[in-house]
Every structure is written in C-alpha cells, then in structure tokens.
Amino acid sequence: MTTHAFGAHAADQPLVAMAIQRRAPGPLDVQIDIAYCGVCHSDLHTVRSEWPGTLYPCVPGHEIVGHVSAVGDAVSGFNVGDVVGVGCLVDSCRHCASCEEGLEQYCTSGMVGTYNGRTTDAPGHTLGGYSQRIVVDQRFVLHVRHPQAQLAAVAPLLCAGITTYSPLRHWGAGPGKKVGIVGIGGLGHMGVKIAHAMGAHVVAFTTSEAKRHEIHQLGADDVVNSRDAAQMQAHVGSFDFILNTVAAPHVLDAYTALLKRDGTLCLVGAPAAPHPSPNVAELIFHRKAIAGSLIGGLPETQEMLDFCAQHGIVADIEMIAAHDIDAAYARMLNSDVKYRFVIDCATMGV
Ligand SMILES: [Zn+2]
Ligand SMILES: [Zn+2]
C-alpha cells in the first residue's frame, strides 16, 4: 500500500515528501500506523552519505512509536489498537548464537536495519520511520506501556534509550556504583536518567558550563566540566564505569584515568576518524578496559521500555513537523536541541 513518507533522493538533496510502498502484512507481520518518530544522528549521517553505502531513496527513522492497525493470521501478542514501538532493527538471521540469545543486534549475518537494510520489499532496501505506516515482523515489534500523553517522548527510547540502557545493565550500574556519563546530548541525557533510576551515583561530564543546572535536574548527582583540569583531577581513580557518548575523536586517557581498578570505559559514539591511541600502561597497571556497545536486542529493548515506563522515564524532546527536518538537522549539528527532535508523523502528506 502507498504510504506518505519524508526522505531524500540523493546525498546532496533536502528531505522531501514522497510516496513509498509498504508490503501487505504477512502471517507474522504487524502493521503499524506511526504517530511519532525520533530524529537520531545516524539518520543524518545516512541520508547525507556520511557513512558508506547509503541507498536512495533514503527514508531514515528508527525511533518509531505508533498504533497497530492490522496483524497477520499467525501473530500472537499484538492486537489492533496496541501501542507499539520499533527500534533500529527489523530483521536478523534468527538462528545464529547471538540471535538465539536475543542479541539480534550482534547477528553474525548482520542485522537488518530499520532503514537502509537489505529486504525483498520494494525498493530493495528498508525505509524507516519518517513515514506514516510500517509493516514489521512481530519479533521486532515492542510493547509500549507508557501513558498515551507521553508517546512522543517515548520514541527516542527506541535508539537513544536502549543504546545507553544496555551497557549500563551489562556493566552493572546500580546502588553502590559510581557511573560517569560523558556528553550530555540525545544519548547522554538518557544515560543520566536511566543510570540514576538504576540507583547508581551519577556524574555527568559536559563541556557546557551553562547546562550544569539542567543536568542536575536530569538526575546527575555531580556535574563535571571536562575542560576544567582541577574538576577532572578530583575524580581520578574513582569510577566503576563510564559511558562515553561523544562521537567526535578525542583523547580517551582523560577518562580511563578516572576509572578504578577493573573499571570500564564504554564507547557508544562511532568517530568518523579514530580516537588518538589510548595510553595502554594506564589500562595494564589497573586492569582497566575500553569497550564498545551497540543498541540492544529485542528482549532487552522490551525490558528497557518497561523499566522506563515503571520509573516514568521519557526523553526531553522538541516536536517538529515533517517539513522542519532539514532545519532540525542543522540545529543538531550546532548542538541546539534539548535533547531530541521528534517528528509528528501526522504532518506528512498534508
Ligand atoms: Zn539511532
Ligand atoms: Zn543472527
């Protein structure tokens, strides 16, 4: 069926209204009328071919919240009218070791991204959530249990939320643990809220002195200006875990120095050029680790959504109309957003 969408026909073109096709729901498919879609930095990188391999037309969007409008004959657990979410992936091989464990994001055959992934559907690659409708296999659909009034602010949990929740859980953020969150943007502001709700002592690292008060409001116990050597020095050797959301290349030693013995610095931002090589002696002499983490699998994404619903956690958002997406991208590049743009998908095709 024909669906209104917003996307780009080429890397150097603005996003425009376009009509795309969605498959009729198969036996295991859930058809979703999209209400809101968050705007992630990955959308911008992909639509502008800043990462290799973008296929056009490109319809980005992987922070999707909407209502079920049809289900296939064999679907169990989803009914018409349910509030649901779709995140960064819509398929995987389903039988490798990672898929068997519900860690589909690490599928050895490669997960199928919600946009720019391989598919037999027209036009041969997946088209994302900057659209009014999507059809997804039930394995990759999530229940949303937040109140109706919060749904727009739930959308960013599907990427920014799970990208921070998964490593915080994996490395045991909780009571008695001192956790750092580096970079308080779309990802980092979710990391602060989630780590705080997990019961950790949360220290936020920012370069923006002006944000100090509002970062405390997000749930940070302490806010450190990472450009202030004395403030950084006060935390040397004290962290169990630091989650670093900054994608720009930077010297990681400033943060590994803040870890305790056996502490881990986890990176979730992919730099366009490599970070300067870390000081390995710092790692060896205190058995410290630098690690990475990629979004989360379907079971953990559901766990994250339920955790956030229980704790009343949503993203801080600014709602935009579809024709404002390019302007929103420009503002994101200036870090001029608190903290996530979300598209009102009702504004497409009108
Ligand atoms: Zn994303
Ligand atoms: Zn797999």
The appropriate CATH architecture of the largest domain is Alpha-Beta Complex
The third-level CATH topology of the largest domain is: Quinone Oxidoreductase, Chain A, domain 1
Q: What's the total helix number?
A: 11
Terminus-to-terminus distance: 18 Å
Tell me the overall shape: globular
What structural class results from the helix and strand content? alpha/beta
CATH class membership of the largest domain: Alpha Beta
Small molecules (ligands, ions, cofactors) in the structure? zinc ion
Q: How many distinct domains?
A: 2
Quick check: average pLDDT? Answer: 97
* CATH superfamily label of the largest domain: Medium-chain alcohol dehydrogenases, catalytic domain
Percent helix among the residues?
Answer: 10-25%
The fraction of residues in strands falls at: 25-35%
Please provide a written account of the structure.
The structure is a single chain. By secondary structure, the protein is of the alpha/beta class. It folds into two domains: 192 residues, Alpha-Beta Complex (Quinone Oxidoreductase, Chain A, domain 1), CATH 3.90.180.10; 133 residues, Rossmann fold (3-Layer(aba) Sandwich), CATH 3.40.50. It has eleven helices and 17 strands. The strands form four sheets. Strands 3, 4, 5, 8, 9, 16 and 17 form a seven-stranded mixed sheet that branches. The longest helix has 13 residues. It is globular. The chain starts with a strand and ends in a 6-residue tail after the last strand. The structure holds zinc ion (2 copies).
